[in-house]
Amino acid sequence: MTAKAGREGPAGRAILLRAAITTVTAVFLACGSSSSGSGTATGALDCALLTGDNCWKTVTSAASACLPAGDAQGTLSSDSKTCTYADRAVVTFSNGEILATSAGSFPNFTVSATGKSCFAYTAHTNGATFTTPAGAISLDQPSSNVESMTCPDGSSYSGNIADLMACKTSTPGVDLGESVANGMGTMMGTLTFSLHGTTGASGETVVFTCATPGQ
Question: Is 172 exposed, middle or buried (0-12, 13-18, 19+ CB in 10 A)?
């Protein structure tokens, strides 16, 4: 199991990071904006919830049918704003600065297949919202030691980060893996964006793997 450590995000709050997986890599437990929903009672975000069925697994699994194959690799455009796969799936970034070394600055993006959007990542001050055909779910870190999850129906769950790190199952979040960076605001090499705590193999779902031409 990978180790986790703290990192300061754009708002000065600690964002959980998972261990580096390649040469110049930072990976983190994604957080998201808080949102007001239908008023459903708040529950505990704990190991029991993560082990069973939950809205994170439901929302993320809905994208699996249209995401590129986990072992496939797309090619980044020269401006790093799009990544195109052989099967014509396209990842579109809001800007070309996709360095994984600054988790808080990772750009918003969408993944489209057969002309339809099947996954969207939207960053917020305290985290991110993830949208699939099953709806939008937000992961949020309202304080340095609390993680919360807001489901598409508005129900919300929160838990202590230290307790969640002790769970035997993966917690909802994101892994960023970057092989090589030139440090000038552009990426050279291969970038992988994966979700953990999902129904995928070993609790992981690869959203995309993109490489600069020639990699």
Answer: buried
How far lies 134's CA from each of 45, 46, 54, in Å?
Answer: 20, 23, 13
Express each pLDDT in 178-192 by its tens digit: 665 555 555 567 888
Residue spans of alpha helices (H) in the chain: 47-51, 55-61, 161-165
- Does residue 112 contact residue 118 with C-beta atoms inside 8 Å? yes
- Residues β-bridged to residue 117: 112
Assessment of whether the complete model's pTM goes beyond 0.85 = no
What range defines the domain where residue 23 resides?
4-211
Q: What mean pLDDT do residues 54-82 have?
A: 90
* 179 contact partners, CB below 8 Å, separation of at least 6: 22, 23, 24, 25, 189, 190, 191, 215
Q: Other C-beta atoms within 10 Å of 184: how many?
A: 9
Tally the domains of the chain: 1
